[in-house]
Amino acid sequence: MRVAFLGLGIMGQAMATNLVKAGHEVTVWNRTPGKLVEGAGIAPTPAAAAQGAEVLWLCVSDTDAVQEVVFGKEGAVTALNEGMIIADSSTISPAATVKFAQRVAEKGAAWVDAPVTGSKIGARDGTLVFIVGGDEGPIDRLKPLFAAMGKKIFRMGDVGKGQATKLVMNLQIALIYEGFAEALTLATKLGVDSQQLVDLIGATMVKSGVVEYKAPFILGRDFTPNFPLRLMHKDIRLTLEAAKEARVKLPGLETVEELYEMATEDGHKDLDYAATLTLLEKWAGVQVKGQAA
After folding, report:
1. 166 is an active site residue
2. Considering 161, 166, 214, 269, which one is annotated as catalytic?
3. Is residue 57 within 8 Å of 5, Cβ to Cβ?
4. Quick one: which of 25, 41, 86, 131 has the fewest CB in 10 Å?
């Protein structure tokens, strides 16, 4: 398929690379010049990238960025035509997604929200899980592209439901991780070996994919961004906004958002979101590592 891929960040560059490897004709655009995908064409603007494409795939930072690359100056909207599909793997506002879909429908194009889970390793290895919202027809047409980049697709309903579900998933990830970080901090303060605690967690009902994935990085003091704190913070805010619109109270997430705010003020926004641990450590006067402090 002819694919225009907009956004070559931590996730997007690997995703576009896998599309090329699968034999698709890919043209890429990135806000910051200089990022390349071997075997893909390069376009100077979103509109130029979208020209002649069957599918426009987005993977950008936030709601405003999606609006800009699609509807802004030199945006892709000018190149949309009957039958084109926009697939958005950004994590953005569900309400805005519905509005964007309505706008492109006026040009005969379809919108599929397709945020992902699986982090940068899943993007690299082509094992992402797509959380999808949209009509079944466009989603079926996208299946060869999903297969090139991921291992599973979950259609959660109409347009916007993919984004809503992604926010719910990240809500859980944020809360599970903070529980783990607090447990590690207290355990270290009380003289419990961190590695032994992680082994125990893995053998009990407390285990989770979040803990399994993050523990090796934490015990190795590696906060290189798999998922930058600034983006998880953005998603937490989106979740709280969606909850407010739906008149749902999320007290646990509200508390975690405050922690992310403080971590940002401490200069950790470009580290992995696991770096919220460093605040807990600072307050406790300990450092979590493979051996107890």
Report:
1. yes
2. 166
3. yes
4. 41
